[in-house]
Specification:
With 702 residues, the protein is α/β, with parallel strands linked by helices. Among the domains are: 1-146 and 622-702, 3-Layer(aba) Sandwich (Rossmann fold), CATH 3.40.50; 204-257 and 421-478. The protein is 59% helix and 16% strand. It has 22 helices and 15 strands. It has a six-stranded antiparallel sheet with strand order 2-1-4-5-6-7.
Length: 702
């Protein structure tokens, strides 16, 4: 299948008619379409899918109201100013019928009148207009070429492809895609026919019936488990969507000045707090002005006053001492205690004379009591220690508080709580809805656990039934061809599946080495019958290291930390402690956690696996790849350009920004380029298309 050209009319940012020519020759199979974000690349990507597949490209089973809304949204806004609005996407494709190329002109047209849209599909085959029933046949035919399971493989969005490969439930999509690519989906049809024949057969073999019934049960149980897992994923996405709505609601409410009552009260309380703070500081200033600042002018006098108080205190002590000496009782005490008492009278007389002279020559000016002296000295000390910078700091803090109050008042002026009831009710509804979804997730999780437990029992029963079935065949006790064919087809499908998987493993090892900058990042890959993908890196450990690891985390810990394959390797070894050569080296296949890869590593892993799967296909289908280098660094871009795009067979459309396919990558692809296009959209208006031009940064190499 080859896309020769495409015409867009009033589709997205493509106002009026826009034409792309893709018809190429020789081995030039790459069409490079550049455009900055918003230029119209993804719109073109959507147009190709939509024109060919209609509502199925959006994942719908029929044309419904959601599909119609999506179409109305896609139709160019300027064109909607005129009614009826006409929009269409027209694609010319060539399909190999086994002998020659059939040319199809597919036109999907929409007529919009008063928010109601009508879709028309017009198809010409080799210039002959197809009738309605022929169009239905073509749609079935095109769905066989690229069935829904392969949509995301051929219409490849670099930013979303990791979901297809790594999300929970991805293994079902991958397995279906794998079986379709290999053509093995036919086995399911054949098996159903044989089982139908068996059910209508007159022969009744309980062993065969038991096998078939258990096979159907185990298939149905597996599908049911995967469906529940998909529901959990969808539920999780719905929860994320509600979280996004709540965030948007909060942002919109706040941007419009809305606040919660608690926040409103908090702002008023903040103003009160600032006012209380200023009242406290102003009271301090007032007190300082009344009690401290005036005395600072008399600082020297205060120092003299303090000295005078100290001097008068000393004089009072002299006076008290002199009064004591005048007492006869004191003289009697001295006489009793001192041997030479005649002399003591003379000594006391001299002391009295000296004290009286000092006391009489110094009169008391203040004559303060001890309590009064203490109070005055305390106040003087306080005034003398007063720091004048405290006044400046307090005044500054008052000014700062006034500014804070002003800011809060301005915020209050911008705020309103008029619509708080609507806001609270809507948010409450969202939260109720989220609670229901969280409860549903918990229920689904429990249901999955129960089903997986039942599945394990069912799997054991099926294994025994299969053994019984095989034994019956060996005894030649089953003569019915259909009965023999069922098991034969199951075995053939399993053998062919394993054969193709081994090819994928072989291809993958080569591709990951080519694409990944880190050598030996992944050494092996395993894909089981349910398409569970495990990846491994080979690492070397000494016996001594393994003994240490075993002591620290035990064998179960080794299984969890290094993976089951490593556990099996260690388990096969005899007692590690008994191995004499502790430096002996052992290679272990360490299982890697794919979810722990960086975004770039994930995309490289996916592209390697993707290309490995594509090598199995028997026919060529165009690849439309949007944002090819999402989260990929320069070195990996070079590897992808060289080993992925250049080697991928079939027509390839690369929709790139100027930060993705740059000069180096452009040069690597140059000889494979059939066409280049440049999309330009200024100010989110009309997209302008320039042919044979790529970004100005690399125009010199075009």
């Amino acid at each position: 299948m080859i896309i020769n050209n495409i015409e867009l009319n009033n589709f997205g940012s493509y106002e009026g008619k826009t034409f792309f020519d893709f018809q190429s020759f020789d081995d030039k199979n790459i069409i490079l379409i550049g455009g900055k974000n918003g230029a119209g690349k993804t719109t073109l990507f959507t147009a190709i899918r939509l024109c060919i597949y209609g509502f199925k490209s959006f994942g719908y089973q029929s044309s419904n109201a959601f599909y119609n809304k999506a179409i109305i949204k896609i139709i160019n806004n300027n064109s909607k100013l005129v009614e009826p609005t006409n929009a269409h996407v027209k694609i010319n494709i060539s399909i190999n019928n086994g002998q020659d190329l059939d040319e199809y002109n597919i036109k999907r047209k929409w007529i919009l009148v008063k928010n109601s849209v009508e879709e028309q599909l017009i198809i010409y085959k080799n210039e002959k207009l197809l009738k309605e029933e022929e169009i239905a046949d073509f749609e079935k035919y095109i769905m066989q070429i690229i069935p829904p399971d392969l949509f995301d493989l051929y219409f490849f969005d670099g930013e979303k492809i990791s979901d297809f490969f790594l999300e929970e439930g991805s293994k079902v999509r991958l397995k279906n895609a794998f079986l379709t690519i290999c053509g093995y989906d036919i086995f399911d049809i054949i098996n159903k026919n044989f089982r139908r024949m068996l059910s209508s057969s007159s022969q009744d073999n309980k062993i065969v019936s038991n096998y078939i019934n258990l096979k159907e049960k185990i298939d149905n149980s597996s599908k049911e488990i995967e469906e529940l897992k998909d529901k959990i994923i969808l539920n999780y996405k719905n929860i994320q969507e509600i979280d996004s709505k709540i965030k948007h609601l909060d942002t919109k409410y706040k941007n419009n000045g809305g606040v919660l009552k608690a926040e409103w009260d908090k702002k008023f309380q903040a103003i009160k707090n600032e006012e209380s703070f200023r009242d406290e500081k102003n009271a301090w200033l007032k007190k300082a002005a009344n009690e401290t600042i005036p005395f600072l002018i008399l600082k020297n006098n205060l120092i003299q006053l303090n000295k005078l108080i100290e001097k008068e205190t000393d004089l009072k002590k002299y006076q008290a001492f002199s009064d004591i000496l005048e007492q006869e009782k004191i003289l009697e005490i001295f006489k009793r205690k001192i041997k030479f008492y005649p002399k003591i009278e003379k000594i006391i007389s001299e002391i009295r004379s000296e004290v009286k002279e000092k006391y009489l020559n110094n009169n008391l000016l203040l004559n303060l009591s001890s309590e009064q002296s203490g109070i005055i000295q305390y106040q003087v000390e306080k005034i003398l220690k007063f720091n004048q910078n405290d006044i400046i700091n307090v005044i500054s803090s008052i000014k700062e508080s006034i500014k804070k109050s002003q800011i809060i008042r301005e915020e209050i002026e911008k705020c309103n709580i008029d619509k708080i009831d609507d806001y609270v009710n809507l948010k409450s509804n969202y939260l109720d809805e989220k609670t229901k979804l969280l409860n549903l997730s918990a229920k689904l999780g429990n249901d999955i656990q129960k089903l997986e437990s039942s599945f394990a029992i069912l799997n054991n029963d099926f294994y025994r039934a299969k053994k019984d079935y095989e034994n019956e065949l060996k005894k030649n006790s089953i003569n019915d061809i259909s009965s023999k064919a069922v098991l034969m087809l199951d075995k053939l499908e399993a053998d062919l599946y394993e054969d193709q998987i081994s090819k994928v493993r072989k291809f993958f090892k080569k591709e990951i080495d080519n694409l990944m900058r880190k050598k030996n990042f992944i050494n092996d890959i395993e894909i089981d019958s349910d398409f569970n993908i495990s990846v491994y890196r080979t690492e070397v450990y000494s016996i001594e290291q393994l003994i240490k690891i075993k002591k620290e985390i035990g064998l179960d810990g080794i299984s969890n930390a290094l993976g089951y394959k490593s556990f099996q390797t260690i388990e096969k070894l005899e007692n590690l402690d008994n191995i004499k050569n502790k430096e002996q080296l052992i290679q272990l296949d360490i299982e890697l956690d794919k979810t722990s890869f960086s975004n770039g590593e994930k995309q490289i892993f996916i592209m390697a696996l993707y290309k490995s799967l594509m090598k199995l296909r028997h026919y060529e289908v165009p690849f439309v790849i949007d944002t090819p280098f999402a989260r990929i660094d320069a070195e990996h871009r070079n590897n992808i350009s060289k080993y992925f795009f250049r080697e991928l067979k079939g027509q390839i459309f690369i929709l790139s920004t100027n930060k993705e396919v740059e000069s180096n990558q452009f040069n690597m692809l140059k000889d494979k380029l059939a066409f280049t296009y440049m999309l330009d959209n200024q100010d989110n208006k009309k997209t302008i298309v320039h042919k044979n031009i790529y970004f100005t940064e690399v125009e010199n190499v075009i």
